[in-house]
Design a protein that fits this description.
single chain; about 160 residues; alpha/beta; 6 helices; 5 strands
């Protein structure tokens, strides 16, 4: 299952940038992301396209999000269906359905921004890409036995190969 969400990132001089991510719920790994100056439907679609291109999941993948207009858009639903994935959405007023994404945002903003802001989109893309690379490769998670997402996935693959089907 992948969990998707969008957050607002402060921009120097006022205004916002918008970051969409898709997280692998098992490993907590950021599998796809996109950042823009506006929040169109294509923000979440491009992040999902990137994740699908890299991960190439089998049919049946569940992609979960809130009920934002980007996730209910016809083109987004078409992208999900084209890849044989199943769309799941939080119930109205139930923030706990998307708790993994909300938890990610709180730590992400604290670690990356530390109360600061981005000068512009180009700088944000660069800093976000560096932080996500660090997050996936090195950041340890108590829920993963204090392993990074990449290490956890490697360990999971190795273990599953040792177990007969």
């Amino acid at each position: 299952m992948w969990v998707g969400d969008i957050t607002y990132l402060p921009r120097q001089g006022g205004g916002w940038l918008y970051l969409a991510v898709w997280l692998d719920r098992c490993s907590r790994k950021v599998v796809g992301w996109d950042v823009r100056e506006t929040m169109p439907e294509d923000l979440v679609s491009e992040a999902l396209r990137r994740a699908l291109a890299v991960r190439r999941p089998p049919a049946g993948l569940v992609v979960h999000s809130d009920q934002g207009s980007q996730y209910t858009a016809t083109r987004f639903k078409g992208l999900v269906a084209k890849h044989g994935a199943l769309q799941s959405m939080s119930r109205r007023g139930n923030c706990y359905d998307n708790a993994h994404a909300e938890s990610f945002w709180s730590r992400f903003k604290a670690e990356l921004l530390d109360g600061g802001s981005f000068p512009g989109l180009a700088e944000a893309k660069l800093e976000i890409s560096h932080h996500i690379a660090y997050y996936n490769a090195e950041r340890r998670h108590s829920a993963l036995g204090y392993c990074s997402p990449n290490h956890f996935e490697t360990h999971l693959q190795t273990t599953s190969q040792l177990c007969p089907a």
